[in-house]
Design a protein that fits this description.
The structure is a homodimer of 408-residue chains. Chain A is of the alpha+beta class. Chain A folds into two domains: 277 residues, L-amino peptidase D-ALA esterase/amidase (4-Layer Sandwich), CATH 3.60.70; 119 residues, Roll (Ubiquitin-like (UB roll)), CATH 3.10.20. Helix content of chain A is 34%, strand content 25%. The first copy, chain A, contains eleven helices and 15 strands. In chain A, strands 1, 2, 3, 4, 5, 6, 7, 8 and 9 form a nine-stranded mixed sheet that branches. Chain A has a six-stranded mixed sheet with strand order 13-12-11-14-10-15. In chain A, a hairpin with a 2-residue loop joins strand 12 and strand 13. Chain A is globular, with a radius of gyration of 22 Å. Chains A and B meet through helix 8, helix 9, strand 13 and helix 11 of A and helix 8, helix 9, strand 13 and helix 11 of B.
């Protein structure tokens, strides 16, 4: 099989999907703030949601809707600027009204429409603006590349760049397109869940294979990202499959077609996960942390997350300081049992710490590595053969700037 | 019983303890960097150490020494500027040599001397400077107030103020002095352990009651502080009791005298814990988070720590933004099972969120509360009667400044 990126690809690269992105006044600066995605055919859908106990109204609504109607979903409305979280029953009513409004405009059943929201927690959706936005977005739906990219811009909050891409998966028996868009730059620490992410495909899936494929892909991608350790109230990833690629449906998780689809989907979601870390709030560096030599992949993941979450590691990376002691310190408090005498650490290809003892750091080489936009950290625990990679970013003055005055 | 602070108190407020603080060149700026505390009589000692898997050489040494010789400890040498962590067997040898050197200068047994170190991880102790410092510190030992305060300054790293105090505990049957000094401003997230802290008393304890009292006091104080979520390789708290107050020894954890001593000790360690949070790296605000209405004290503590660790809560506090959604979000991902409909949140006395629904925030009152140097957050989980308080600080540009270039 092959996985090829589609140049300039987006949601609308998948046959049978149209999209739009409009500005309806949710963002004070007049930027795009409402996206609509429509499938011309009914879709099999699967979704994963935040594990936060405070689940935003659209999370509660989508969870119920996907469970009740996993085989004939048609559209998703996504607004930025207001998370509609911690808004109680009135907030849930606003979400239902949003879906109903879109259903009427699109001529589909209300329970065929999903809703995602992102932005400030605790504020109600301004429904007059939402109504106007949904009408305009429905009118502007298009299968063009421009429309797909507008949708990906409309879901941004503190993101500095839109995150969207599409891939073509070719196997011997079939060929599918998978496309996705994601947003998220802060409050990013998915925990068996993720940030806002919509993925569409023309593959033919069943509810069971869609759910399974999504879980596998998310575990290997969006669940490996952290920006600031805060798990949001609104994290949602949605997969919509309209089956327009034709061919036999992927109806078994044991089939070769399923494995190929999971590979393609994981390729896409890893690219989106990396894009989220790269655009972390205030980030000046993208950081890939690989933990190898672990007893289990889970151990490797836990150690990687501890290092990725460490404020001291993140600020040292921002300061371009090869302060490996902070990396080792985070390994030590991760909760995974490690033997200090077996642990080694590399910055890029430069070894800093070998089996419990420091190397004299070649500060010139370290400085050259740390001056780059992308930094790799490798940690060998020396106790097994499993590994995991996590992605994060540094912690800069910019993060503090952005978050000291987010509401105001 | 009564607990009275001693004005200007420090380690030397306790009868039979002398101290000194000298500059031996470990700090580039010539500031005090080596402290020595000596008891004129043998002490019963107890200690608690970091749970980090990478334990610094002085942690390994002290653990062994306190276990082997808990009833005739005499002195502790504390250096700042170099943590002597991740330095392998040579680092351990340096710690042993430091203790031996001090023992010779003081005329006591080598296993009567403990060592603590704090500073950069991974660098070896410059033993020539340590030797010179230990000799000078031994020569300058004094029971004066000035000497006690010099010792507390010599253990500072990024601390902006020394943290030391002494209290007088009066009970019907006895009267003791308890004094302590602590350091720590970053890499502060004790986990069944603490930062560097030395506590001395003239109470008469046994190894068992000393250890038990220390554990109780630390659980209620230093284990309730977080600055940045990073648990250090060097965290150590040491209690030395020389018995000079006279009276019957406190030899049972069931005695009234033991309970009174624990109360006094906890009073002292809470004050030191608050001082650490208040002086967190870059902190502009001291934050006290009380979680009530919990099923257990442990649940309350877990929720409090999640809020205290949240970068988004901490940056909002820095920005004086009453962004209660971030507080609620952190409650939701803390791992404690909560019912959103039962949770309420207050900022100072201002209610922000009542049983799952937002209040319209009185922004003027919120701004006035957030303009203060000390901010209280109260969270009621509405599911029980237990509570816990944790202490932290905000996250400012200053934290990033300090930690981007710590080594350099």
């Amino acid at each position: 099989m092959t996985i090829e990126p589609i140049a300039g690809g987006s949601i609308t690269s998948v046959p049978g999907f149209r999209a739009s992105g409009v500005a309806c006044g949710l963002k004070k600066n007049g930027a795009l703030d409402l996206a609509l995605v429509l499938s011309d055919w009914p879709c099999v859908g699967a979704a994963m949601f935040t594990t936060n106990a405070f689940q935003a109204a659209p999370v509660l609504y989508d969870r119920q809707t996907v469970a009740a109607n996993p085989e004939s979903l048609r559209a998703v409305v996504i607004n930025s600027g207001c998370a509609n979280a911690c808004t109680g029953e009135p907030g849930l009513e606003d979400t239902r009204a949003t879906a109903a409004l879109a259903a009427r405009e699109l001529g589909v059943a209300p329970n065929a429409v999903l809703v995602m929201s992102t932005g400030v927690i605790g504020a109600r959706l301004p429904m007059d603006k939402i109504a106007q936005g949904v009408r305009q977005a429905a009118a502007e739906l298009s299968a063009t590349e421009v429309a797909g990219h507008a949708a990906s811009r409309a879901i941004m909050t503190t993101d500095t760049v839109p995150k969207t891409l599409a891939v073509r998966v070719n196997t011997q028996g079939a060929s599918w397109t998978i496309a996705g868009m994601a947003k998220g730059a802060g409050m990013i620490h998915p925990n068996m869940a993720t940030m806002l992410c919509a993925v569409v495909t023309d593959a033919s899936l069943t509810p069971v294979t869609a759910r399974s494929a999504l879980q596998e892909a998310v575990d290997a991608s969006l669940n490996r990202v952290t920006v600031d350790g805060d798990t949001s109230t609104n994290d949602t990833i949605l997969l919509l499959a309209n089956g327009q690629a034709g061919g036999a449906p992927i109806d078994s998780v044991d089939s070769a077609a399923y494995r190929a689809f999971v590979q393609g989907l994981t390729h896409l979601t890893i690219a989106l996960a990396k894009a989220l870390a790269r655009d972390g709030e205030g980030a000046t560096k993208f950081v890939e942390i690989t933990v190898q030599g672990a007893r289990s992949e889970r151990d490797a993941h836990i150690v990687g997350q501890a290092v990725a979450r460490s404020l001291l590691v993140k600020t040292a990376l921002y300061g371009q300081d090869a302060n490996w002691g902070r990396i080792v310190c985070a390994v030590g408090y991760s909760g995974v049992s490690v033997d200090p005498q077996c642990v080694s650490v590399w910055l890029g290809e430069l070894e800093l710490f070998r089996r419990g003892a420091p190397y004299d750091v070649d500060e010139a080489r370290a400085a050259a590595i740390l001056a780059r936009d992308e930094v790799g950290i490798r940690i060998d625990l020396g106790q097994g053969t499993e590994q995991a990679t996590v992605w994060t970013c540094d912690l800069s003055h910019g993060y503090v700037d952005i978050n000291a005055h987010y509401r105001t």
